Amino acid sequence: MDLPRRGALLGLGGTLLAAGSARGDATWPDQPIKIVVPYPPGALTDVLGRMFGERFQAAFGQPVIVDNKAGVGTLLGASSVAKQPPDGYTLLLATVTTLCIAPALYTRPLATHADFVGIAKIGDVTLFLLARPGLPVADPRELVSLLRARPGGYSFGSPGIGSVHHLLTELILSREKLSAVHVPYPGSVKAMGDLMEGRLDFMFLDATVALAQLSNGKLKPLAVTGSQRLPELPAVPALTDFFPGLDAQPWMSIAAPGATPPAILERLNGEMNKALADASFAVRLRQIGVAPTPLTLAAFNDFIGREVARWTEMVRLSGAKAE
């Protein structure tokens, strides 16, 4: 075949591929959508995956499957999404742990933020620093004194290596030159049970998991993350009252494989921000400890870039590693 003829056919092939891609974007979605939640069922991420699954199903007219795939600091589920075709049919419930923290903890992470494109931020999450009921402390300052008196003599739980809950504790231990035994769990629910039963001494927990147990006295609140007290629990101090500058709020989002077409990303971003602007949906989020924070596609992906740098530095300062 002569070169001009071959070039013409290659050009035609490119045109047909582009046309096919455009048709695919225009007809999306024409099959079920899957949201992979890289945590076990029952915790905040699972609730959020199902909430947005309901919204997508109503908006796009296709079934939405929520698939819990926990492990390796959330990177097992994340890597499974990264390997899927970038066609908008497999999405990731992406937390700050998955996109920013866990990749910095592992020498050879299964996935990093570079494997994904952010669709939309859901919101910031409130955590409580909690102690078992019998632990003789009332606030973080007293907890520090207790840990200093018995180095390595107390234990703390987390919903997994690389979780914000784990890293915040390691940052406090590093700052105060303390030591305690870390007991990682595959999610928050079992960890909370062991904390209530006294098999752990303290830990950070999501508000959605902890609030019911706080109201019945089964857990002792020491502080709330962020720089402001919660109106619902005004007696619980802010963590920054004791550790200035430690205003590290975890956040939740939905992401897709990196090469997903912009037209599909825009549709998903628009539907998510529409949900976040819906008063009744926003109330449901606040009831489970999530403050809605809608962002455009560009703004959210810029935000991810800044957060990767910030949390990577916090991992370095904490000295935490996972292998």
In brief:
The chain is an alpha/beta fold and 323 residues long. It is built from eleven helices and eleven strands. It has two domains: 30-125 and 250-318, 3-Layer(aba) Sandwich (D-Maltodextrin-Binding Protein, domain 2); 127-241, Periplasmic binding protein-like II (D-Maltodextrin-Binding Protein, domain 2), CATH 3.40.190.
Describe the 3D structure:
By secondary structure, the protein is α/β, with parallel strands linked by helices. The protein folds into 2 domains: 30-125 and 250-318, Bordetella uptake gene, domain 1 (D-Maltodextrin-Binding Protein, domain 2), CATH 3.40.190; 127-241, 3-Layer(aba) Sandwich (D-Maltodextrin-Binding Protein, domain 2). It contains 11 helices and 11 strands. The protein has helices spanning 3-27, 44-60, 75-82, 96-105, 140-149, 164-176, 188-196, 207-215, 262-277, 279-287, 297-318; strands spanning 33-37, 64-68, 90-95, 116-125, 127-131, 155-158, 181-184, 202-206, 220-224, 251-257, 290-292. Helix 6 packs across helix 11. The longest helix has 25 residues, at 3-27. It is globular and about 65 Å long. 41% of the residues are buried.
